[in-house]
Amino acid sequence: MTTPQDWEQRILAGIDETSHELLDLAGLLIRTPSENPDGDCTDVAAVIAGHLADAGLSNESHDAGDGRVSVVAHSGTVGEGERHLVLAGHHDVVPVGDVTRWSFPPFAGDVVDGWLRGRGASDMKAGLAGLIHVYVLLHRLGVPLRGRLSLTAVPDEETGGDRGADWLLARGVVDGATGAIIAEPSERAHPTIGQKGSSWFRLTIHGRPGHGSLQPLHGTSANLLAARAIVALQRLWELTPNAPEDVRPLIESSKRYAEEREGFGAGVGEIFERVSLNIGTVRGGTSTNVVADTCVVDCDSRVPIGLTREQVFDKVRAILAEEGIEADVEPLGFASEANWTGTDDPIVATLVGVLRELHDPEAEGVLQWASSDARTFRAHHIPVLQYGPADPHTIHGFDERAHVDDIVLAAKVYALTVVRYLGLTD
What we know:
This protein is of the alpha/beta class.
């Protein structure tokens, strides 16, 4: 009789033996451009669908328009008391930026000195390749899983669009899921199990035009009003959250992790209990010698656990009123409340337990200050956590890369988590 332990050893050995296939797939995904914007993921979705089909696995492509193509695959059915696990990832990437500032081709997709190189290596084509490879390998080995296993590869994540995970989940594609793993980049021993909310907004400030040579005596500069508003809105940092008691230990451990393991230094952990504000773009005026009649300021604000987006918007309006600045305030882009999955949820406990066995006995889940598709899964009441291979300092930057050892480790973590979370038939 083959025991669960026998299956796990067979799976781990299978990942080692086929690691070249995993890296080849990751490289192919990187070499298939899918920058967002403009967000057309037709080609990379076709690569994923073809890879699954070549492995004898049925799959579906869902086209939400403008190249926002998702690939979905399912295996198994859910009986009474059984679970449904979703392996999820996005296949769009941020733009490569100034190509001359890369020391290698941005879409290299090769392995050099133990590093997989190219845009998306960390965020998150290496992790996505790991999910796909595990899904294929479990089928190839004939692992007798209980319940249902689904795979989703989606577009439209990097710009916070609604035609990726939002589009799929709203249409019931993974209805009944009891847990999910997203292969977003993380630190080796610290999957992310919660995140701050996103409250992006746009300020539109109107002034009164006039001849530039008469400033400040003639006309009212929207640019100057915007500058005052930008300085005043730094007071959002003063908002004090009231986090639930049961999540405060997670916040404290995340603060320690950020300062001790992430390498950002003392004090950065405070970000988990503050409203952050980034002034992303400022666009005002029509000409150098004309008093600006309109200025538009796009802001990226992140909301800690214990505050809501509406509370942040109320504070924005209050600050502007105190300063005597009239402005239109409208939501923009990413929009979510702070969200998290409990440390005792089965999907979190299972993956963290596997990680402690395979890599670090002190592994634990932490919060992140960014946002991802995890917010969408939690909005649909699907417990989720994120774990993926990455070189954090190259994410969204030049010379993006991920270490081969981390890629293989992540695949092993995914595989054993699937087996232990779903269980095996007799």
